[in-house]
Write a structure and sequence with these properties.
This protein is of the alpha/beta class and 385 residues long. The chain is built from 15 helices and 9 strands. Strand 8 and strand 9 form a beta hairpin. Helix 5 runs parallel beside helix 6 and helix 8 crosses helix 10. Bound molecules: adenosine-5'-triphosphate and magnesium ion (MG).
């Protein structure tokens, strides 16, 4: 190991431009690349009913039961909390809840509700049985949260009239309604708020079979004719995330459209060529992921190495490596967190076509405990989020 100054940064980043982590085709969040376009396509690709929603069988069955029972009783169902990583279908399911109940839906989000008054005006204008979708519910202000507890439990809101010492709270009865909350960070929700949801569904990453179903459906809606193996190839590179799958499908469609005549049916070769062009490899890793793994395997012999050192070696911010690349690499078993830093697994060496380290080498040490937070160079409180 030598010094980790700007020389390494230049060496890594300068040859073909630095890696723009905010414009990744494999970004699971709503993309900044295609912006409004992507949002519109997403709306078009959303399944509208529970029966059309592939994957997440547990959540789907449980939610189906909760909704069917409420409909039979002619009452508003319990409040629903949907949690899970970006791009797995929380917003889609929220829309489905309203559609299944055949009720209108009001859409807002935590960041949009900064004052309790914002929430009061929404709540007081809800119709009976309406669905209130609160996206990013963990980002609501504390005052609004407290108002929401009361509204969810007692269907009541205290409207404050006047200012200062003369202000009075006038209780206002609300008609029954259903809150659907969505969050990528369920752990950040205060317990009293979490407890007011009668049903919580946690969404998990999709397997290739479910992603294949989703992609077939999307291809149909986008009028993309394709061979099954092409769809399977996209599914296996989509990181378990429908949003990424749909995005990759559109890039493959672009490739086929530009390179073939109209009516061409997308082949496995097209899918591979397009995904290679967009730097998404067989395991769904992109350039940033591979840069992190290469640095870890080649420069640091598989580790352990501190996160900040690793970040410098790839010319990225620590935060980018930690929040953008690391979660997927750890989840897929390419990298692990050990008490002394980040470690490449045997799987990482194999993926990069490198000679795996000898038995007992990095990635096989008994003290290699994924998710162990001690001894890393992270600021306190950053891990496990
Ligand atoms: N089970 C599914 N079947 C078909 N398409 C899906 C499914 N889940 C998600 N999608 C598609 O993926 C895209 C993203 O889904 P959605 O917006 O519901 O994710 P999200 O969990 O709300 O993400 P975020 O946390 O970023 O808000 C949408 O285009 C949607 O159509
Ligand atoms: Mg959403």
């Amino acid at each position: 190991m030598n010094g980790f100054g700007s020389d390494i940064r230049e060496h890594d980043a300068a040859d073909d431009g630095s890696i723009d982590a905010t414009a990744r085709v494999v970004d699971p969040g709503a993309s900044v690349i295609s912006g409004e376009d992507e949002r519109q396509v997403e709306v078009a690709l959303r399944p509208r009913r529970l029966a059309d929603f592939p994957g997440q069988p547990r959540v789907r069955d449980q939610l189906g039961l909760v909704l069917a029972a409420a409909k039979q009783r002619g009452a508003a169902p319990d409040h629903v909390l949907l949690s899970g990583p970006p791009g797995l279908g929380k917003t889609t399911l929220a829309m489905i809840v309203a559609a299944e109940l055949e009720r209108p839906i009001r859409v807002t989000s935590g960041p949009a509700i900064q004052h309790a008054g914002d929430l009061a005006s929404i709540l007081s204008s809800l119709d009976e049985g309406e669905v209130l979708f609160l996206d990013e519910i963990h980002r609501m202000s504390r005052a609004a949260e407290e108002m929401l507890y009361l509204a969810m439990e007692d269907f009541r809101v205290d409207v404050i009239v006047g200012k200062g010492p003369g202000a009075t709270a006038i209780p206002l009865e609300l008609p029954p309604f259903t809150v659907v909350g969505a969050t990528t960070r369920a752990g950040l929700l205060p317990a009293p708020l979490r407890d007011r949801f009668g049903f919580t569904g946690h969404l998990d990453y999709y397997d290739v079979a479910d992603l294949t179903t989703i992609l077939r459906r999307s291809a149909g809606l986008l009028d993309v004719r394709s061979h099954d193996d092409a769809i399977g190839e996209i599914a296996s590179r989509s990181r378990g995330t429908p949003r990424i799958a749909n995005r990759l499908l559109r890039r493959v469609r672009d490739y086929a459209q530009v390179n073939h005549s109209a009516g061409h049916r997308v082949t496995l070769h097209d899918a591979r060529e397009a995904l290679t062009l967009f730097d998404v490899d067989e395991a769904g890793l992109d350039r940033l992921d591979r840069a992190v793994l290469s640095a870890l395997c080649l420069r640091f012999g598989g580790g352990p190495v501190g996160l900040s050192t690793l970040a410098i070696a790839v010319g990225e911010e620590t935060d980018t490596v930690e929040t953008v690349a690391e979660p997927f690499l750890v989840r897929e078993g390419f990298m692990a967190r050990s008490p002394r830093g980040r470690v490449a697994t045997q799987f990482a060496f194999a993926h990069l076509g490198l000679e795996p380290p000898p038995p007992g080498g990095p990635g096989t040490r008994p003290d290699m405990l994924p998710f162990d937070e001690e001894g890393t160079d992270l600021p306190a409180g950053r891990l496990g989020s």
